[in-house]
Amino acid sequence: MAVFFLPEASPVLEFYGYQFLKFAKCEEVIQRLRRIVDKSLIFLGTISEGVGF
User: Fold this and answer.
1) Distance from chain centroid for Cα 52
2) Which residue has the higher pLDDT, 13 or 16?
3) What pTM was computed for the model?
4) How many angstroms separate the Cα of 18 from the Cα of each of 5, 22, 32, 37?
5) For residues 53 and 32, what is the distance between their CA atoms, to the nearest angstrom?
6) For residue 47, what pLDDT is reported?
7) How far apart are CA 37 and CA 30, in angstroms?
8) Where is pLDDT greater, at 12 or 40?
9) Strand (E) positions, the chain?
10) Its domain of life (predicted)?
11) How many Cα atoms occupy the beta-carbon half-sphere of 27 within 13 Å?
């Protein structure tokens, strides 16, 4: 993937690229947390079934 930067637009593109990266990072973290929560809920569900709640 080739990215060409124009000298005048460089700061703007850098800013938007940074914002996008931050957003993508947040999405990644949210997905990871959601996966952990899902696993925890499944785990708790199996425990409660085993105990007989």
Assistant:
1) 36
2) 16
3) 0.52
4) 15, 6, 21, 28
5) 29
6) 81
7) 10
8) 40
9) none
10) Bacteria
11) 6
What's the DSSP call for residue 4?
A: -
For residue 18, which of 7, 26, 29 has the smallest C-alpha distance? 26
Residue position matching structure tokens 């499944």: 42
Q: 3-class SS at 51?
A: helix
End-to-end CA, the chain: 55
Q: How confident is the model over 19-50, as pLDDT tens digits?
A: 888 888 989 999 999 999 999 999 888 888 87
Residue 44 and residue 53: Cα distance in Å, rounded? Answer: 11
Q: How far is CA 21 from the centre of its chain?
A: 10
- Sign for the pseudo-dihedral over CA of 22, 24, 28, 33: positive
Let me know: does 10 contact 2? Beta carbons within 8 Å. Answer: no
